[in-house]
Amino acid sequence: MASLTLSDVQTLLDAPSAAVLTTIRKDGSPLTSPVWYQWTGDAFEIVIARDDVKLRHLEREPRCTLVIFEAVPPFRGVSVTADATVTRTDITEHRRAVARRYLGTQRGDRFVEQRAGKLGDLVTLVPAEPRVWDLTAILPDA
Fold first, then answer.
1. Strand 63-69 vs strand 77-83: parallel, antiparallel, or unpaired?
2. Cα angle at 15 between 97 and 47, to 5 degrees?
3. 86: closest CA among 97, 94, 76, 74?
4. pLDDT-above-90 percentage for the chain
5. What is the DSSP code (8-state) at residue 137?
6. CB-based contacts of 50: which residues, under 8 Å, 6+ apart?
7. Residue 73 sits in which domain range?
8. Which of 76, 68, 67, 70 is nearest to 136 (CA)?
9. What is the CATH number of the domain that holds 38?
10. For the whole model, what pTM was predicted?
């Protein structure tokens, strides 16, 4: 069976799918946290509040893993381990795009308005060798 690629799970990446980001603490232990993401076609983008511990982890150790998955059949998923690029920029429009994906337009806009004064940074992960899975072939018929 051929290896799956990100394009094989495009609908998963386009949906507001569950995702977790694992960063590395100072003592070397992992910290796994739920995140919202956006797939640009080339990279995964995550907005993280500037006072969040995950940013301190990534500034010290950029290696991290992002896992995106479905909790319902066909249980597709993606795991990407990469060196994160943290960009200090005005994240308002990135935050809006991601919030709208997960909450819809109106609630996403309210989410952004409520965080208007909360600074954040844009974290970008470029997948080199993503691990992609789709369990359709091994699930029994309904």
1. antiparallel
2. 35
3. 94
4. 87
5. G
6. 118, 119, 120, 121
7. 6-135
8. 76
9. 2.30.110.10
10. 0.93
